[in-house]
Amino acid sequence: MFSFKGFYYALGRRKVIEFIIFSVFVLFFYLPLLNLIMLAFSNKYEAPALFPQEWGFKWWDYVLGQKNLMSSIILSFVIAIVTTLLSMCICLPAAYALARFEFPGRKLLFLSFLLSDAFPKMGLYVAIGIIFYKLNLIGTLPGVLLIHVLNSLMFMTWIPANAFRSVHRQQEEAARDAGAGPFRTFLHVTFPLALPGIIVAALFTFLGSLEEAQGTMLVGFPQFKTMPIEMYGIIMQYATTAGPVFSLILMIPTIIVLLLFRRYLSAENMANGFKIK
C-alpha cells in the first residue's frame, strides 16, 4: 500500500543526499579559489594555521610595485592577440577543407591535432627547443609565437571545422545560384553562420596563450617575460604570499574576456566543436 509518510521521508532523504553531493562538489571546485583569495590578502601566514595571522595588502603593494609587471602584462596581451590572429589565418582554411572535402586519411589527420595534448608538454618542449636552437629561434619573438601557435592548433582546427560542417550546403548553393562567387559566398554566408564556433575557438586560443608559460620560458626566457613567467619568479621567492596575488591578477583578464563573450560559450557550441565526423 502506498504511504505518504514513506514517500515524503524518502523524498527528504533524497534531498539531503543531493545537498551533501552538491556541497562536496562546491567545496572541491571553489575551496582552492577561496584559499587563494585568503592568502592574497594575508600579510602573514604560517602553516598549519587555518587562517592568516595578519590581514592586509602588503603583498599587493609588493607585486604591483614590481618594475617588470606592466611590461609583462603588455607583452602577454600582444603575444596572445598576434597568436590568435596567426592561428586563425593558418587554421581556418585547414578547418574549412576538413569540413567540406572528403579525402583518404581525413579522420586520421583530424585526430593528429590531438598529438600536442597527448604527451607531457615539457617533453615536447625540450624536443622543440633543440629544433629551435638549430634554427636560431631561441630567444626570438617568432620562436615564442610559434610555440603559442602550436598549442592552439587543436582548438582552432577542431571547433571551426565542426562549425563549418554545421552550415548546410544548400545555403551556400543558393548564394552561388544567385550569382555570388566562392569567396563572396564564404564571406557572406558560410563565415557568418560559423562565426559562433570560430569565436569560441579564438577565445580558447587567446586565453591559452595568456596562460602559456613552460614553452615561453624554454624558448623565450630571459628576453621575453610574460605574466606567467613573472608569476613563477615571484612564487619561487614567496610561495604562499605573493604568488596568490599574482594569480588573482592573471585571472582578471580571463574573467573579463569570458564575460564579454559569454553568449558564444554555450554548451551546444562547445560540444559540437569536439565532434569527430
Summarize the topology.
Elements: H1 4-40, E1 42-44, E2 54-55, H2 58-64, H3 69-100, H4 106-112, H5 115-118, H6 121-134, H7 141-165, H8 169-177, H9 182-211, H10 214-220, H11 227-237, H12 242-260, H13 267-273
Antiparallel strand pairs: 1-2
Task: Provide a descriptive summary of the structure in words.
- With 277 residues, the chain is mainly α.
- 75% of the residues lie in helices and 2% in strands.
- The chain contains 13 helices and 2 strands.
- It has helices at residues 4-40, 58-64, 69-100, 106-112, 115-118, 121-134, 141-165, 169-177, 182-211, 214-220, 227-237, 242-260, 267-273; strands at 42-44, 54-55.
- It has a two-stranded antiparallel ribbon with strand order 1-2.
- The chain is globular.
- The relative contact order is 0.12.
- The mean pLDDT is 79.
Number of helices: 13
Could you report the average pLDDT, rounded to the nearest whole number?
Answer: 79
Strand order of the largest sheet: 1-2
| Alpha-carbon Rg, integer | 24 Å
Portion of residues in helices? over 70%
Distance between the termini: 52 Å
Outline: globular
What structural class results from the helix and strand content? Answer: mainly alpha
Strand content: under 5%
- What is the N-to-C succession of helices and strands? HEEHHHHHHHHHHHH
Low-confidence stretches are none
Largest sheet: 2 strands, antiparallel
